[in-house]
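thoughts on both lines:
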Amino acid sequence: MTEFIPAAKPLIGDEERAAVDRVLQSGMVAQGPEVAAFEREFAEHFVEGLPVIAVNSGTSGLHLGLLAAGVGPGDEVIVPSFTFAATANAVALTGATPVFADIEPETFTLDPEAVAAAVTDRTRGILPVHLYGHPARMTELGALAEERGLSLYEDAAQAHGAALHGRPVGTFGAMTMFSLYPTKNMTSGEGGMVVTADEATARRVRLLRNQGMERQYENELIGFNARMTDIHAAIGRVQLTKVDAWTAARQSNAAFLDAHLRGVVVPPVAEGATHVYHQYTIRVTEDRDRIVQALKEEYNIGSGVYYPIPNHRLPSLAHYAPDLELPETERAASEVISLPVHPSLSADDLERIVTAVNALTAAGS
């Protein structure tokens, strides 16, 4: 039996374990010097030195970032439905209303024309997701936000190092979140990063993550316990030294798949975009579930369907969008398969993935 090829594979090595041991031996494991160092290094590496605030998860980052930016009851924030539910959840947790707009079929990201049609007099902001590691159409969305007097935010959970015309994601919006969940392009074990160019917003995020305190027992507002530990930050600092090589490997693996897959729609890359391939997501027009099952059962290859149920159809969020029709979102949800693209893949792994997909799509034609 050939070895199983997982859809995703966290990479944790001796350096990360040594960093954790160092923190444990120091006796300072809560938010401390490792977190502060990680914030500085992440800012310099990814977002041109903008203020970065570490939190305990990507979802916390979105929630606290939106709260700090002033989003709340009575507001609407336009979001994609074709993404993980955390994006809309974070909007709803502020007391605001997530408003779902359709995606463009090529990049799986918010369609600026659909966003424009969804704007009302209650719209506070636009929150695109750089899905699968491909940047959303930030130029057009930024122009729309400026024209309508709206805020532009970014969900960059899957997009560490992605860019548009040389400008890194995380530098377009008034607030951005990066996730550090184990399967992301880099991890801290668990965690998130909030980016904002506005110092007042950054300070509010710092207060919100720490029970509303900047100084102990001097609570300025009602906050949360959403701190990152030094243990997690130490892991993240090591991962920062490796992520660029991992991204290059993902891009190389994606190029191989692009060149050799047949019978599927491979993920296009928009002009001027740098795709970091958190997921390598193809489209198949028929027998999607059969192909996913056969990849595992016949070829021992893992894959994923991200995401089979659009957010506006989920029981938790459907009441925000009664009778809403999002045709491109629905089509993507029925056609997508994410194939392994992670840096651990060998040349033989890539050959097996190509052989399997090509055989299965040919069999179904």
In short: Residues 243-364 form a domain with the Aspartate Aminotransferase, domain 1 fold (CATH 3.90.1150.10).
